[in-house]
């Protein structure tokens, strides 16, 4: 069904009917988000916020949108859920601090060597145990607030989900588009296994257990790989706004492009 024909069908429905018909989408998105959140987060709170997002999507959908209603509604639903999570940040400040410390060490190693920062070197420089490092990776994978573009001392953040651009001004749209390009380049430079996990999780929407079955590893190992990828992206995106302002768009890592490399043995 084309977007135009779908819109005509939606026009014939009341807002209430549209919300009822697409309610399963809200629960599907909520449970997918729960896969990266701690047990203390109540899925019903996410569903309630998502239903508000669905209601807004039903009221605001228009024919000039290139996306189908389900795609548009999905973005609004995720946005409403993330807004709810931002209001009730459950992540301890100690977790934010450790994530910033690891991110900075990864950034330093990769800038010095021009290669992917290996786990063993990160652990050595930080003076921590393997178990503590793995816990930090798990925190990175589950923490809602691993912003890829916020200032380094900013505890607030944004998720990797594609944002709805409705309401953004021209400058904000340009900045967001620049961030998207920089993020695509940074993801393209991740080790192969980390790229695969990011694709399976964010694009194919598999959960950690399903990704583990695909890769032949445990669910906890997938969580670690996911955390590694997020920290590496955070490190490579550091300062991207300054670089964009200086005409160095496209890398988010000191203005130099990185080539995709095979996964180091220590990360396998």
UniProtKB/TrEMBL annotation:
Could you tell me the keywords of this UniProt record? Cytoplasm, DNA-binding, Sigma factor, Transcription, Transcription regulation
Q: Which CDD domains match?
A: Sigma70_r4
Key word DNA-binding present in the record? yes
Q: Which residues form the signal peptide?
A: none
Short name of one Pfam family for this protein? Answer: Sigma70_r3
Localization, UniProt: Cytoplasm
- Region of interest called Sigma-70 factor domain-2, as start-end residue ranges on this chain: 18-90
> Where along the sequence lies the DNA-binding region?
208-227
The chain positions of domain RNA polymerase sigma-70 read 45-58, 207-233
Q: List the residue ranges of the region (Sigma-70 factor domain-4).
A: 186-234
Q: What SUPFAM superfamilies does UniProt report for this protein, alphabetically?
A: Sigma2 domain of RNA polymerase sigma factors, Sigma3 and sigma4 domains of RNA polymerase sigma factors
Chain residue ranges for the region called Disordered: 242-268
Locate the motif Interaction with polymerase core subunit RpoC: 45-48
Cross-referenced Gene3D superfamilies, in alphabetical order?
1.10.1740.10, 1.20.140.160
What HAMAP family does this protein's entry cite? Sigma70_FliA (MF_00962)
Q: Which family does it belong to?
A: Belongs to the sigma-70 factor family. FliA subfamily.
Looking up NCBIfam families in the UniProt record yields: FliA_WhiG, PRK06986.1, sigma70-ECF
The record's function comment reads: Sigma factors are initiation factors that promote the attachment of RNA polymerase to specific initiation sites and are then released. This sigma factor controls the expression of flagella-related genes.
State what protein this is by name.
RNA polymerase sigma factor FliA
Show the taxonomic lineage. Answer: Bacteria, Pseudomonadati, Pseudomonadota, Gammaproteobacteria, Lysobacterales
Q: Which gene encodes it?
A: fliA
């Amino acid at each position: 069904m084309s977007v135009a024909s779908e819109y005509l069908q939606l026009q014939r429905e009341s807002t209430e009917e549209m919300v009822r018909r697409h309610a399963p989408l809200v629960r599907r998105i909520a449970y997918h988000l729960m896969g990266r959140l701690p047990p203390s987060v109540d899925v019903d709170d996410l569903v309630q916020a998502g239903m508000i997002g669905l209601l807004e999507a039903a009221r605001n959908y228009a024919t000039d949108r290139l996306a189908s209603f389900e795609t548009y509604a999905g973005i609004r639903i995720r946005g409403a859920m993330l807004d709810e999570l931002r209001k009730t940040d459950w992540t301890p400040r100690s977790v934010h601090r450790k994530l910033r410390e690891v991110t900075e060490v990864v950034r330093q190693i990769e800038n010095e060597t021009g290669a992917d920062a290996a786990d063993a070197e990160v652990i050595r420089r930080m003076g921590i145990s393997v178990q503590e490092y793995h816990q930090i990776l798990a925190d990175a994978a589950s923490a809602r607030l691993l912003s890829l573009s916020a200032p380094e001392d900013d505890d607030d953040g944004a998720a990797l989900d594609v944002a709805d651009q409705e309401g953004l001004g021209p400058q904000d749209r340009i900045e967001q588009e620049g961030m998207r390009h920089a993020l695509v380049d940074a993801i393209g430079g991740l080790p192969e296994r980390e790229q695969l996990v990011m694709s399976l999780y964010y694009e194919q929407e598999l959960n950690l257990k399903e990704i583990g079955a695909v890769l032949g590893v445990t669910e906890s190992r997938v969580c670690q790989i996911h955390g590694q990828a997020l920290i590496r992206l955070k490190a490579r995106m550091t300062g991207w706004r300054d670089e964009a302002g200086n005409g160095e768009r496209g890398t988010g890592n000191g203005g130099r492009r990185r080539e995709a490399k095979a996964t180091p043995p220590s990360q396998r």
